[in-house]
Amino acid sequence: MTMPFYVSPEQLMKDRADYARKGIARGRSVVVLAYDEGIAFATENPSRALHKISEIYDRIAFAAVGKYNEFENLRVAGVRYADLRGYAYDRADVSARALANAYAQTLGTVFTTESKPLEVELVVAEVGATPEADQIYRLSYDGSVADEHGTVVMGGQAEHLAERLTAEWRPGMPLAEAVQLAVRVLGTQPDGEDRTLEPAQLEVAVLDRTRPRRAFRRLAPAQLADLLGTTAEPSGGPEQG
Amino acid sequence: MTPDTHGRLPASFTMPGTSSFLDFLAVHDPSLLPGRTLPPGEVSGALHGTTIVALSFDGGIVMAGDRRATSGAAIASHHIEKVFPADEYSAVGIAGTAGLALELVRLFQLELEHYEKIEGTLLSLDGKANRLATMIRGSLGLALQGLAVVPVFGGYDLDREVGRIFSYDVTGGRYEETDYHAVGSGSAYAKGSLKKLWWSDMSAQDAVRVAVHALVDAADDDAATGGPDTTRRIWPVVATVTSAGYQRVDDDTLGAVVAEIEAMRRAGGPGGGEPR
C-alpha cells in the first residue's frame, strides 16, 4: 500500500489560489466605477444574453469574471437571498454588505473544503442616496472581501488596467465621461496600441440613484453610442468647448 | 428564516432549475408561504376588501378599486388600496380577505420580479396570469374556510399589442374576459353599470370615467363598497396599463372625474347615465 505524499497546508492553498487565479485571468476584464449619479459597470462581452453584469435587488447589482457557470450559480443564489430577505423583512432591509458576507462565506468554504476552488471574482455594489453612501465590495475566489472606493477592475490584466483607471478617474464624473473612461480602459493592451471597442462589443449597465425603486438599468447599444459619440473625434476630448 | 448569514449559502440557494420564487420558498422555507400556518376553523374579525372593476379600452386596460375594507358590519378602513402594479406591464386587483389578499399580491409581485431578474426577460402575459392561478389554487384550503381571495388581473400584452383582462375563481380557474369584469361584494352592481356604460374601443379618458362611475354605482347599492369620499378627498385607486406601462391616475384628474359623475347623477340634473 502506498502512502499519500504529505502536502503542507501552505502548498495546498497556494496551488488552489494559483489554479483559481489562472482561470480568472483568462477572462475579459470588468470595470466598475462610481459617477455622479450612481455606479457604472462595463465589460467587453459580445453576447446579448449571457450577462456578466446583473441586477440583484432594488439598489444592488452584481458583476463577475471567471467561469460563467460558477458565477451564474452565485448570481441566482444572490437574487434568491435578496428576494427572500426582502420578503421576510422589508425591501429596505436588503443590503449589499449582508450579501457580500454571504458570498464571502460561500467562496471561502468552497476554497478550503472542496477539491476545486471557484474560479470567479465578484463585485457587489449598492448605490446610496448620496455618492458617500455608495458601497462597492470586491470578493475574491478565496472569500476575501475588500471594501472599495470609487473604482474596481477584475479579470485578466486587472492590475495593469486598474493603474490606468485610478489615474484618470475622479469623483463626481458625469455618466458619459465615466463610460468613456471605462471603455478606454477596457481597450488598453499590455503591449501595442489601444483597441477601440464598439458599442455592440460592450455590456454596460448602471445603478442610477435617481431612479425611483429599481436603480439598475442596462445601456442599449444605441444609448451607448450616444454616450461614446463625443469621443469619436480624435482631436478633442469630451470636455472640449 | 433566512439561513445562517455567517455560513455558506445553503444548497437550496444554489440549486439550479427553477426561476420561481414560490418554488424556491417551498423548498427552502415553506413556513413563509402565506396561509400555511393558519389554524383550521372560522376566523372572525378579518378584514374584507370589496369591489374592483377592470375594463379594456383602445390600447390597454383600466383597473379601479374602491378604498373601503370592512370587518363584519363595521368599516375597518377608509383608505385601503386594492389595486397594485404586478409588474411594469400588468395590474392586479383583489377582493376578499384583505390580510391574505395583500400577502398574495406581495408574493405575486415578487414572483414576477424574481423571474425577470433570473431569466433576464419578462414573463408573457399568459405566463403571469397562469402563475397567479397557481397561487390562488394553493390557497384553496383557506377559501374553503371562508377566507377566499378573488383577484382580477389585467395587463398589456407586449406580443399581441392589446390590453387583456383575466378573472379567477377560488379554485384557481382562469378565464379571459374580453370587455370588462368586476369582483367583490359590489361586483353585481358594478357589472350592471359597466354593461350599460362600456363600449368597445373607448378612449383611456372615457374608460377611467366609466370605471369610476361603475364603482359609484356599486357603492350606491352595496354597503361594503365605498364611493369617492369628497369629505376626506379619498378617491378610488385607478390605474391604466398601456404600452407605456402601469400608470396610476393622479388625484386631481380623479377629483374632476368624480365631480363630473356627481353632477351627472345629481337629482334634478340633466338626467343620469353617460353622455356619448
Plain-language structure description:
Chain A has six helices and ten strands, in the order αββββααββββααββα. By secondary structure, chain A is of the alpha+beta class. Chain A has a single domain, classed as Aminohydrolase, N-terminal nucleophile (Ntn) domain (Glutamine Phosphoribosylpyrophosphate, subunit 1, domain 1), CATH 3.60.20. In chain A, the strands form two sheets. In chain A, strands 8-1-2-9-10 form a five-stranded antiparallel β-sheet. A five-stranded antiparallel β-sheet of chain A has the order 3-4-5-6-7. Chain A is globular and about 70 Å long. Mean pLDDT of chain A is 90; it is low at 231-241. Chain B is of the alpha+beta class and 276 residues long. Chain B has one domain (46-265): 4-Layer Sandwich (Glutamine Phosphoribosylpyrophosphate, subunit 1, domain 1). In chain B, the strands form two sheets. In chain B, strands 1, 4, 5, 6, 7, 8, 9 and 10 form an eight-stranded antiparallel β-sheet that branches. In chain B, strands 11-2-3-12-13 form a five-stranded antiparallel β-sheet, covered by helices on one side. In chain B, a hairpin with a 4-residue loop joins β8 (149-157) and β9. The radius of gyration of chain B is 20 Å and the shape is globular. The N and C termini of chain B lie far apart (57 Å). The model of chain B is unreliable at 1-6 (pLDDT under 50). The chains are: A alpha+beta (241), B alpha+beta (276). Chains A and B meet through β3, α2 and α3 of A and α2 and α3 of B.
CATH class of chain B: Alpha Beta
Tell me roughly what share of residues is in helical segments of chain A. Answer: 25-40%
Strand content of chain A: 15-25%
Count, helices of chain A: 6
Helix- and strand-based class of chain A? alpha+beta
Helix/sheet category of chain B = alpha+beta
Radius of gyration of chain A: 19 Å
Uncertain residue ranges of chain A: 231-241
How do the helices and strands follow one another from N- to C-terminus of chain B? HHEEEEEEEHHHEEEEHHEEH
Summarize the amount of helix of chain B as a percent range: 25-40%
Q: What's the total count of β strands of chain A?
A: 10
β-sheet strand percentage of chain B? 15-25%
Report the average pLDDT across residues of chain A.
Answer: 90
The biggest chain-chain interface is: A-B, 26 and 24 residues
Overall pLDDT of chain B: 89
Broad shape of chain A: globular
What is the tally of helical segments of chain B? 8
CATH architecture of chain B: 4-Layer Sandwich
Task: Supply the CATH class of chain A.
Answer: Alpha Beta
